[in-house]
Structures are given as structure tokens and as C-alpha cells.
Amino acid sequence: MAMTCYYAQMSENFEKSYPVRQVVVESGHQGQRLDNFLLAMLKGVPKSRIYRIVRKGEVRVNKGRTKASYRLQEGDVVRIPPVRMADKEPAVRPGVKTIEALEQSILYEDKRLLVLNKPPGLAVHGGSGLKFGVIEALRSMRPEEKELELVHRLDRATSGCLMIAKRRSALRTLHELLRTNGVDKRYIALVAGRWERDREIVDAPLAKNLLQGGERVVRVDPDGKQALTRFRVLERFSDVTLVEAELMTGRTHQLRVHLAHLGTPILGDDKYGNSLANRRLKKQGLKRLFLHARALSFNWTEEVGRLRVEAPLEPALEQLLKQLRT
Fold it and tell me: What is the structure's pLDDT at 44?
């Protein structure tokens, strides 16, 4: 079967189904996750369907099965199975309020990169019953931008700095920076309890998809993947503490689980948190997870040099802090 080079652009006029294809990955796309690669190649096919064909082994890389998280390498040959367009869900445009919120949330933009202050409650991508997320909304808002891709992810409940690559070359560069700890990521969180020490380092491996009461959660597990977080106290209150977190690894729910592991879970966390503390802070106006990706910094282009982007805290959270100080 003839090979198809990845740089070939797909037509927006879909046929009834996609045929079997063998796709050669070119250097410009080295390091991209397999799931994101498939989403670009099978435009319009639901994310749930993408993960299903990977799990079933219908997608092969170099003739072998692999995971959706696999990072593609130059020269990899990806077998993409036939996918009927009956699986395609109708496109859903974000509402006017969502579009306005995203437009107003842009913190930095150049020809290769966009950084926005992700609003809380908005997922970074569609799936699991969600018709759209940040990336789908941005693609809808900017149809001329053909290469928009998430560089990393934030939990739906988390606000703050989120990077979107506007070029494949930028995506590859930023992924390499993330893998080599070249991106300084700082979060702030309000946690239950009062910290006595000014600084704390948590080196506790994490395992995900463990069942608890029928719900999938992440837990500290000696057989899990390495997870390292550095914390420092920003401000102490009577029985809660505002901390800054520096992520040294990027595991799912890492900050939430590490802080719960310390016995001081993030306030507003209904999965790993303290229900009594959450109810008390809710009466004071906390209606969301108090976790915010405050700042990003990394070496960018020659013209820009060291880029630092900071996301202001949501007014409701600032107001809560003011109440705690009185």
C-alpha cells in the first residue's frame, strides 16, 4: 500500500468513510502524541472513537500496538484503520459568551504561540459528554489557523496559563522544553490547614485510574510514575494556607493529590478534598477549586528571549483572600 506523507492536507469535504492508510511521520511532527495526531488526521471523528480504536489495537505504529500517549518519532509508520463518518458528531459552535470570554482571556500572542488565562469550568478539549473545549472553541473562532494544538493541559476546574501552539514547529519545541523541565510552571492554591514550614518538597509517585466507589482517581502509589512538586508558603491565615507550587513533573491531578497526601487538600476540591472545610469556605463565597496556574516562563525566540506570562487571579478568588485577611 502506498505511503501517505503527514504533511498532506486533508480535504474538509469528507467522504462517507476514511480508508485504511499508512502514514509516515515527518520531522516537523516528531514528539506529537498519537491521540492528537489521529484527531488531526481524522477531523470530525469523536475523541471517544479515537481512543477506542487505539485501545482495540486497530491503530498500529510500526506494525505494533501502542498507547494514545505515545510520542511519535520521525519515520514512524502509523496504520490508521477505516473509520466510518457515521461516527462523526455534528460540529457545535461555542456560544457568544464563551467566545467573548476566550478573546478577553488572551495574555500573550505571537506568530507561533498563544497563551490564555483559561476560565474555570471550561475543559481544554471536548469529550466525555462535552461538545467542545478550549481548543475546539479556538479553532471555531479562528478557522484560518489550521495548526492550533494544545501544548499541555489543565483540569477543567483549574484556571490560569494555558499554551496553544499555532505552528507544528512551535508544538515540537514546547514539548521538548516541557520534557526537559525547560518551562517554569507556577501555581497557587488555597489549602485546608495551617502550614508551619515555609517550604515543602513532595516526591511521591502517582498511579491513576484506580477505582474508589466506582470513580476513577489518582493515588500515591510506590509502583506509580515519579511525581515531584516543590511548595512554598505565600500567606498564612487562621486555618488555611495560600501556597505556591512548582511542578517538576506533569502527572494527572498531581498538585491535588500531593496536597491531599500532605493532609492539606486544596479547598473546593470535591474529589480529593476535605468536605467540612469545603462547606465552610463555600459559605464565604468559594464556589470552585482554588487552584490557579499563575505563571509560565521559558526561553522562547531570539527576539523575545526569556518569556514570562502571568495570569491574574479571578476576582472572586481575590475577594475571598481579602475576606480571609480581615
Answer: 73
Annotated catalytic residue 223 = no
Catalytic-labelled residue, pool 35, 87, 110, 155: 155
Please report, as a single letter, which amino acid is at residue 33: R
> pLDDT band at residue 64, thresholds of 50, 70 and 90?
very high
| Domains, the chain, ordered by start | 3-87 (3.10.290.10), 96-179 (3.30.2350.10), 184-325 (3.30.2350.10)
Cα–Cα distance measured from residue 133 to residue 184, given in angstroms and rounded to the nearest whole number: 25
Neighbouring C-beta atoms of residue 20, cutoff 10 Å: 11
Fill in the amino acid letter for 274. Answer: N
The span from the CA of 285 to the CA of 326, in Å, is 15
Report the DSSP pairing between strands 149-150 and 159-165: antiparallel
The set of cell numbers assigned to 223 is: 509502583
Contact 10, 43 (CB under 8 A): yes
- pLDDT of res. 18: 59
Which residues neighbour 117 within 8 Å (Cβ) at sequence distance 6 or greater? Answer: 105, 106, 107, 159, 160, 161, 162, 311, 312
Q: Are 243 and 281 in contact (CB under 8 A)?
A: no
